[in-house]
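Q: What does the assembled structure look like for these inputs?
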Amino acid sequence: MLSRELVAASTVPLVLSILGEGETYGYALIQRVRELSGGRIEWTEGMLYPVLHWMEEAGQIKSEWRESDTGRKRKYYHLCREGREALQGEREQWLTVHQTLTRLWKTKHVSI
Amino acid sequence: MEDKTRFDLNTAVEHWLETLRRSPEIRAENLAELESHLRDSVAEWQRRGLGEEEAFVLAGHRLGGSMALRQEFAKINQSRVWLHRGLWMLVGIQAWALLGTLSHLGAAAVTVGGLASLGFKFREPNLYLSALGPASGLTLTYLAFLAACVTGAWWLVRRKETGLRNAADAVLHRPLWVGGFVLIPLGLLVLNFAQFPFLAFWFPRAEIGGIMASKSIASFAESVLLTVSLPLLTVFLARRYVASCRPRRANP
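A:
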């Protein structure tokens, strides 16, 4: 299980990356995160929506209410140009952290 | 028999929505999205083999409790939260005006009427000295009325909290009713004015001067008391509130 702080910090890059694959809606977004993380990243599901709202206000994503195949209305989200730029920035930052930690742990691996 | 206890998904969802619909932190559009999520989640858990009721309970649990949801949504709906608070403040100001005027009129009716029925004469000569007695009577009765009103209001808030909150929410959700509150100060103005012809009808002109002098001294005394006691009350309540924010120290 991830710590609360890490879950909170990784929400925006996860949302940006999943929307980078194509448009989707909140519930499917959460399912995708669960599936990709093997259930190790668990969100309190309702907390995603204020984040999505904030990202839309920031101009990173856009939303649209549409009828789904079940006949009910759903709110679909897609990435905007600013969102793509934000995703690029997030990618560089997370890769930097990842690379640094991997290098450290590779050298220490022998001594553990 | 069985029909009465059978779980109905739409009723359960509606009940779940109802609790959140009254929260100022969550807008109607947010709620529509949460409902859409809840229904998707229920359908998914049913597909995995859970019964309708279990699926609903689990989906609701995963979505988050109403307190947690309200806290999170408050971050993005600040303006709506403040609008709600502002409305409450306006209602409070008008409720205060209502209590104040009712207490004034009540005190005047009891004191002036009571003294007159005891044969007391409100005399014009020696105006201020003879007015001091009735004025202190007026002030004391006013304070008693006000204390009774405030205690009554406090009792209502403490004992009938849910009923009161529901009634208040019902009013706040009907703008015309909120608008109706505008009529309260207007009504009070009319009531206040009506006391003059009433006095003129019941008392000889010579006594009205004495009554008005008593009333003006009393209202000055009341203003002084309120000016001192309201800030003191605010400080007292604020201290209690701040104390309840601090964690309790563990016993050594």
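The first helix of chain A runs from residue 4 to 20.
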